[in-house]
Design goal:
About 30% of the residues lie in helices and about 30% in strands. By secondary structure, the protein is of the alpha+beta class. It folds into two domains: about 5-165, 3-Layer(aba) Sandwich (Aminopeptidase); about 170-355, Aminopeptidase (3-Layer(aba) Sandwich). Strands 1, 2, 3, 4, 5, 8, 9, 10, 11, 12, 13, 14 and 15 form a 13-stranded mixed sheet that branches. Strands 6-7 form a two-stranded antiparallel sheet. Helix 5 (about 180-190) packs across helix 9 (about 310-325) and helix 6 (about 205-220) packs across helix 7 (about 230-240). The longest helix has 17 residues, at about 95-110. It is globular.
């Protein structure tokens, strides 16, 4: 049966686009469905503040009357690399022709908007799910990370995409004793830098969004692929975190009264959501089922780097998490060539192991 690829232009086609992964992953025990309505909201340019500085086009691949794959192409005026466009929401049956046609459609759309490279997958940017899973298929991914099937990398490579960067996800068993070296280095760095560690509030005030935007954007500055957040995007992220975050694991480091570091760790709610088809049950009873957390952000603003401030924030996080009964820590995602962060983990948490790997692919247009 012949294959066609068409842009999504109607509400019915959008619903097909949103429902497609449920068929592809129907028998997979590790895929976590998105929260109800989350993908529809992400793709809605009238609601998602991301589209105040970006535009996108979604495509479906059809064989007759059946959709076999999907993809979204994005151009983002806030992306520091204005020669690159991105793709995301890539899902496809094990169909080489379908995958190649979807990638070609996204590439053509980006080319028509003056882009010279296509990078991805990003959903929708590096501030959300990033990279394609290439190692670690036999586990539910930590919260905020995506899942894909083992044949996806092959389909991208057959479509002439090549590896650009890998991100690593580390795991560490909290039931063991905290490393002595970590405690020693952290206490020395905290004392030397007069670092005060405080909890970050999610009260919903505009000042909190401004503080988060400042710390997040500045601490991530210079990291490959990073796109800064607008104030509205920062506010939406905090609103989302307020639904499930553990306030005691949201930390800010202050030096001489100035905020200089951000450390955000999130309860790993994915096993709970996976059992409930993407839904997080009402109330807080689900907290009893959460065994792990993900350290998602550990960043220091440029003027305070190279002072060892990561160590006291990491130690404080692990001590608080241990006291609260968490059993597993995930440190993710870390660029494979982020020498500083990989060295911090190797030196201070030497038993941490890489449990999954996510890849950014690229294509010259």
């Amino acid at each position: 049966m012949s294959l066609t690829v068409k842009p999504v232009t109607s509400d019915w086609e959008l619903q097909v686009f949103l429902e497609l992964p449920y068929r592809i992953y129907a028998s997979n025990p590790y895929w976590v469905p998105p929260s109800p309505g989350a993908e529809r909201w992400r793709l809605n340019p009238r609601e998602n503040p991301f589209f105040a500085h970006a535009e996108g086009c979604s495509f479906l691949a059809w064989r007759g009357k059946e959709a076999v794959g999907r993809i979204t192409a994005i151009v983002d005026a806030a992306n520091p690399d204005q020669e690159a466009g991105t793709f995301g929401f890539f899902e496809v049956e094990e169909d080489g022709e379908g995958a190649a046609a979807l990638l070609a459609a996204a590439a053509d759309w980006l080319r028509s908007r003056g882009r010279r490279r296509m990078l991805g997958p990003f959903t929708l940017s590096s501030n959300e799910e990033t990279g394609l899973l290439v190692e670690g298929f036999a586990a539910i991914p930590p919260v905020g990370l995506g899942y894909s099937l083992p044949y996806y990398p092959r389909l991208l490579e057959e479509g002439q995409l090549r590896k650009i960067k890998d991100y690593l996800a580390y795991s560490w068993d909290l039931r063991q004793t905290l490393p002595d070296r970590l405690a020693k280095v952290a206490r020395y760095a905290q004392r030397k830098n007069q670092l005060q560690i405080k909890h970050f509030s999610l009260g919903g005030r505009s000042s909190e969004a401004a503080a988060f935007q400042y710390l997040y954007n500045n601490s991530m500055e210079g990291i490959w692929g990073f796109t800064p957040l607008s104030r509205r995007e920062a506010r939406e992220i905090l609103r989302g975190l307020a639904q499930y975050a553990d306030p005691e694991l949201l930390l800010v480091g202050e030096r001489r009264g100035e905020p200089v570091a951000l450390c955000l760790s999130l309860p790993d709610i994915n096993p709970v959501r996976q059992k409930n088809r993407g839904v997080l049950p009402r109330g807080r009873a689900w907290h009893r089922e959460v065994q792990g957390f993900r350290l998602a952000v550990l960043g220091v603003v440029p003027q305070a780097r190279c002072r060892g401030l990561e160590a006291p924030l990491l130690l404080t996080t692990l001590e608080l998490a241990t006291a609260k009964g968490y059993q597993e820590a995930s440190f993710s995602l870390v660029l494979e060539d982020n020498i500083m962060m990989n060295r911090v983990i190797a030196r201070l948490v030497p038993d941490a192991r890489v449990t999954s790997r996510y890849r950014i692919y690229g294509l010259e247009l």
